[in-house]
């Protein structure tokens, strides 16, 4: 099932998935769009990871200046190495144009 995220065309959006793990747990993670892993050096996309004191970690993809080429289905995959466990989260990004 996909979570729907709707943003205004040209704005910025942060897609997130979360995991509750020990802060020192080693993970590998990525975002997939149209069955391809999004490289970490794309012009308008930036990977970010944040650890919280509650044991939660947020794995985010910041997309700046959202355009028609950015809309669609994204998958966040996080692999927890020590637990040998994978978390997947699905997001459907849509946009609207102001005044339409």
What's a quick, concise take on this entry?
With 100 residues, this protein is an all-beta fold.
Q: CATH class, anyone?
A: Mainly Beta
Structural class: mainly beta
Number of helices: 0
Beta-strand percentage? over 45%
Instruction: Examine the secondary-structure arrangement and name the CATH architecture.
Output: Sandwich
Residues in helix, %: under 10%
Task: Find the CATH topology.
Answer: Immunoglobulin-like
The protein's oligomeric status is: single chain
The radius of gyration computed from the alpha-carbon positions, rounded to a whole number of angstroms, is 14 Å
* Total beta-strand segments: 8
What is the terminal-to-terminal distance?
28 Å
In order across it, which strands form the biggest sheet? 1-8-7-3-4
Low-confidence parts: none
The overall pLDDT, averaged over residues, is 83
User: Helix and strand string, N-terminal first?
Assistant: EEEEEEEE
- Quick one: biggest sheet? 5 strands, mixed
Integer count of domains: 1
């Amino acid at each position: 099932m996909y979570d729907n995220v709707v943003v205004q065309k040209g704005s910025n959006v942060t897609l997130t998935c979360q995991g509750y793990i020990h802060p020192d747990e080693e993970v590998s993670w990525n975002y997939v769009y149209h069955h391809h892993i999004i490289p970490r050096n794309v012009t308008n996309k930036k990977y970010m990871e944040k650890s919280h004191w509650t044991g939660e970690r947020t794995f985010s993809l910041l997309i700046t200046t959202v355009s028609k080429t950015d809309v669609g289905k994204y998958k966040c995959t996080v692999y927890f190495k020590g637990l040998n466990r994978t978390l997947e989260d699905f997001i459907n990004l849509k946009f609207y144009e102001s005044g339409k």
